[in-house]
Amino acid sequence: MDAPNYSVKTLQSQVFWELIICMGLFVLTEAISAIFCPYWRPVGYSIGWIVLAVIIGTLGLIGVHKKSSGALICFNVLLIMLACLNISHTLTMRSEHVHTCKLTQLSFRDCSTVPALKKCLATDSCLKDQMKGTTCKAPGKEHCDNLNHMNWVFAFNMLISFLTFSEPAFWGILLLLRMEMTFPITPDEDDKEEDDKEEAQPLVADQEKPTKLDTTTGSGSGSGNGAYANYGANKQAWV
Description:
Elements: H1 8-36, H2 43-66, H3 69-101, H4 118-122, H5 128-131, H6 141-145, H7 151-182, H8 189-200, H9 231-234
Helix pairs in contact: 1-2, 1-7, 2-3, 3-7
């Protein structure tokens, strides 16, 4: 049994509310991650993702309101690209944290020159508060100890990113397809002029009727030129 077809107006309303809810949920998730997990999700990155999501969401709302196919195409492409980049960046950050915590604190630049950290650096037990205000940029012991417990944060963030981007993109593509199938195609002005000219021409060109040969003067459609031009006039021919 075929499912009912959505109208353009229904899909417009669906895309509008999907954008409001999903983009709001994504912004909220990024803000909470930046507040409670500043080490794992740097504030600068979260602000960048929020700004990009707001810009792309605004483009989608404009396309929905104006029924613009071009704006909807740009919105869908940019939204899918943002989803891929965000999820890829989350996995990259996870990989960087794992790689960083496998290094010793003493191997980080400018850490061995801090006298206050000599004892804890030898056993990789320096805390973030101890290194705060120094030139040592090594991760704190508490962060690396909690790395395995942060897996759910990365997984939840990627899940939210996937859902909040895939839902509007899905309905946006449906709206674009419905608009292209419903709205009539308007021909270009140049194409219309060429079509009118072609319609004005007859299907079969009129053929000129051959004129009757004038045996007196030698003119007519069968008359020759050059040496044979006077053949009909003097009844002479070349031997």
